[in-house]
Amino acid sequence: MDVGHLAPEIALVLGAVAVVLVASFTGRDRQWITTPVAALAVLASAGISLGLARGADQQLTFDRAWALDGATQGAELIIAAVTLACLLLSAEWFRTDPRRGEYPAVMLFSAAGAMVLAGAADTMEIVVGMLLVSVTGYTLAAYHRASPAAVEAGMRYFLIGALTNAVLLIGVVILYGSTGTTNLADTASALAAGADPVAMVAVVVCLAVGLGFEIGAVPAHIWVPDVAQGSPAPSAAFLTVVPKVGALVALVRVLQVLPADVVGWRPLIAVLAAVTMTVGNLLALWQDDLRRLLGWSSVSQAGYALMAIVVIDRAVMALPSLVICLAAYASATTAAFAVVTELRGRTALADYRGLASTHPWLAVALVVSLLSLVGIPPLGGFVGKLTLFTATIDGGYAWLAALAVANTVLSLFYYLRVIAPLAFDTSPRPAPVLGQWAARAVAVAAVATVALGLLAGPLLAALDGALLLP
Amino acid sequence: MLTAAILVPAVAAAALVLGRSWGEATTRIVAVVASAVPLVLLVGTWIRYDTGGTQPFQLVEETDWIPTLGVGWRLGVDGISLALALLSALVFVVAVSYPVDLMGRHRQYRAWFLFLEAVSLGVFLSIDLLLFYVFFDLSLVGMYFLIGRWGHGEARAAALKFFLYTLAGSLVMLLGFLALYLQTDPLTFDMRVLIATQPLAGRGATAGLALLAILVGLAVKTPLVPVHTWLPPAHVNAPGPASAILAGVLLKMGTFGMIRIPLSMMRATFETYAPVLVGFALLSIIYGALVALGQTDLKRRIAYTSVNHMGYAVLGIAVAGALGSGEEAGRRLALTGATVEMVAHGLITGALFLVAGSFWTRTQDYDMDHYGGLAGTAPKLTGAATLAAFASLGLPGLAGFVAEVQIFVGTFSVYPWAAAMALLGVLITAALFLQMVQKLFFGDLPARLRGFVDLGPREALALLPLLVLVVVIGVWPTWLLDLLTPSSEAIVSAFGVR
Distance (Å) from the C-alpha of residue A274 to the closest C-alpha of chain B? Predict the structure, then answer.
């Protein structure tokens, strides 16, 4: 048992505790201090995660309950980066909020929960991670308790979460009942000896619904647009990205141990991916609200990411494509929400008219982020889609790749509904902006979106040999 | 050197974006100089290029980009790509220097043009399939912003339609590329390997589907009937120089891709389906010509003649891959003709669209019925437009004739019936261009056109190189054929080698 292997998560939890303590013992005008404290904790977490250079050391650790592998590390780094960006965004957003001191603590707990989901090699641990990320998520969504939109978003998030968490628990219980263990490695060997197909189908459905909640996949996806639109903009950025990363890795880790010959989980997840991407895109088409549009786009992107899960173990590029897709999605979505935040949360598409003439750099960042979500080269999203399509065709699901292509063309339509007015119209006067820190977050996220594409070589080389245990 | 040809305009575009304090005159000089650098570099490449060389690609430059996926920054030329890159560089210099209403955004307009030049050259110079795709896709982005921001009329709808159609095409094509790529071992996107190993040979349905995907993608860009519907609105609403680039450079990416990818990398499959492609080419030739004849809008008419002319190029390519006939000499001739057609169409239609742009800057009107009798007031414009129109209808002694005669002779030796049908297209285009010239320049001069200004010095100077080349290729095509023929012969003779 090596506690050190869990240091990235422990750093976040300790950071959250420190934030709570600092917030309690400083005056109201000094509450901003908690943001840099939280940022330091996130940096420490990311640094430790990088330092646990995994390569040949990839192993099940902590009494085989924790997967110390490439998938976990990728998720940890993405989660840490996005959390850092969201902390930058929140610094000025909550400037006048008397309860700003505790906000970073909630975010750190949520990030820790997402990391636990990603690294969990035990079904009970998945449940713990899921509960942690959900409960803190509701708080983040409804942090503006005076705003009806935020409270409604938080409420819807909570109701769907409560329901799907129960479904997840049922799935975990059935799996435990059929194998007598919660450990994933033991589950795999128990199932190899024989499995009941009906129970297995129930497990797949329950897990897909239960984890699909935080993934933003159909059918538990309807909270996503509400949270994207109604909750505080930094929370919206966080909640559309971080839980999704953790839950996707958790889902693929469990599915991997289920015997694909007994239960056809690949076709089931393929259908789920197809439905999710199509529903997300169709509902995004006519949105006149940028944040809501980004919410639906987040649903469709979850569908693309699920494609990688369908072909896991059947195509060499499956795991790298999942990680790259998530990284590209995370940077692009963060950049888009960062622009929204920097523009003080303005959200109607009409308000973005002429942004290119009034705030050229914000316009560039938003266009880069949206084009990356489409998958235009050489941005991060392109490498994501390229590896994803390669893996899907290689794994024998060419029809899914073809459907994803059709969906991508569909998505271009609504992304251009944002891009055209901001680039082609003119605006009479510049819009008010939030401040320097949010602007920095925009720059960092936009540069990351470009860099993920241009530096895909070293990135994919680093992912070469990454494992998904058990 | 090839890398520099791509990077110089790209860097200049970035400089224009950042150079906030630059005035209109400064950005014009920067843009013209930066767009001319690739032309100079490519002429240098042409001098160093060995037409008798045995390697399929020369002057190769290679660096890793994503080694795990077998993707590299790989550039190189054969005769066909060198000719098209030279053409593109020339058309870009002309288009960048052509005066047009910049709507107060001269920096951005010129930056997008230089960006587009960089990626267009990238398409022709890449010998890496994925790099080709990257540049191919980026050309859509550049053109989208040029049409949407600096177009007129229904510019935004036209730009949207253009982007949606062509992105759909290129993504479908990407699936085909991946099918090719996944059969290589070790995995690579290197075109030289793909051509040498023919990865999908003998793979039946997979190969057929991959060919279909790639051809559909390229056909959208070319464009072939029935996936041409994005072209007329894009052309009509784009600013004149952007139309010239669209017709002169971007459409060539489709036919160039057909030569480079299916014809070279999937010979066996291409051979099977060549007759189908012949059918679509004939459809484009006849349909494009007939619809062009029905247009009264000047730019729409030119746009539809592009559909017709690119149909000839596709016909030549399809015939070149029709191995069953055994007529190797005819097939070589057809492919050489197709490549000459691409160059000639770039020069001629580029000039025609620039002339159309000049009409728009003067009157904001493309309706041919509103014009007449301009020969007296605008002799230079009349001369330029008439010369380009005659070249486009295939008058002997001009560039279009050299191309079309080779395509027809080549096609006749393989599919006589196809040549006969394609000739119908020539008759119709002759009629429509003569009618166009007559409507615009002869007859009575309407009163409101009394003050119509002839071509200015900047316009005349820009058109001059295009028109001179049209005549030079028509009268003395040997220098161009020397560059194109060895490469197209190499592609055709590789057929049947098992």
Answer: 17
pLDDT at residue A257, as a whole number: 92
CB B243 within 8 A of CB B98: no
CB–CB contact B163 A398 (8 Å) = no
Residue B494, pLDDT score:
86
- List the Cα angle A387/A392/A396 in 5-degree steps: 145
pLDDT recorded at residue B326 = 67
- Average the pLDDT over B44-54 and give the result: 88
All residues of chain A having their beta carbon less than 8 Å from the beta carbon of residue B68 are: 320, 457, 460-461, 463-464
Mean predicted confidence (pLDDT) in B417-433 = 92
Most confidently predicted of A53-62, A93-102, B255-264: B255-264
Minimal C-alpha gap between B133 and chain A (Å):
8
> What Cα–Cα distance (Å) separates residue A126 from each residue in A131, A132, A133, B409?
9, 10, 11, 72
Spatial separation of the C-alpha atoms in residues B30 and B96, rounded to whole Å = 10
Report how far apart, in Å, the C-alpha atoms of B273 and of each of A254, B38, B196, B262, B321 are: 46, 38, 21, 11, 9
Cβ of B67 and A387 within 8 Å? no
> Which of B119, B140, B161, B167 is the best residue to mutate to test the A interface, defined by the most A CB atoms within 10 Å of its own CB?
B167
pLDDT of amino acid A238: 97
Cα–Cα distance list, A130 to A242, A283, B90 (Å): 12, 27, 61
When pLDDT is averaged across residues A119-138 and rounded to a whole number, the result is: 95
| φ and ψ at residue A127, rounded to 5 degrees | -60, -45
Q: Does an H or E element contain B59, and which?
A: strand B58-66
- In the beta sheet, which residues pair with residue A109? none
For residue B498, pLDDT beyond 70: no
Chain B residues with CB under 8 Å of A420 CB are 148, 156, 159-160
Q: Quote the CA–CA distance of A96 and A112 in Å, as a whole number.
A: 27
Instruction: Determine how many CB atoms are found less than 10 A away from the CB of residue B405.
Output: 15
pLDDT score of B325: 63
- Taking contacts as CB-CB distances below 8 angstroms, the residues of chain A near B149 are 423-424
Stretch (H or E) spanning B63: strand B58-66
Q: How far apart are CA B220 and CA B230, in angstroms?
A: 9
Per-residue confidence (pLDDT) for residue B185, from 0 to 100: 86
Beta strands in B154-266 (DSSP E): none
**Mean pLDDT value of segment B46-70:** 89
Answer yes or no: are the C-beta atoms of B315 and B411 closer than 8 Å: yes
Phi and psi for B21 in degrees, rounded to 5? -90, 0
DSSP at B295? -
Q: What is the pLDDT of residue B497?
A: 60
Q: Is B229 left (phi over 0), alpha (psi -120 to 50) or beta?
A: alpha
Whether the predicted pLDDT of B395 surpasses 60: yes
Residues of chain B above pLDDT 70, percent: 99
How far is it, in rounded angstroms, from Cα A36 to Cα A206? Answer: 40
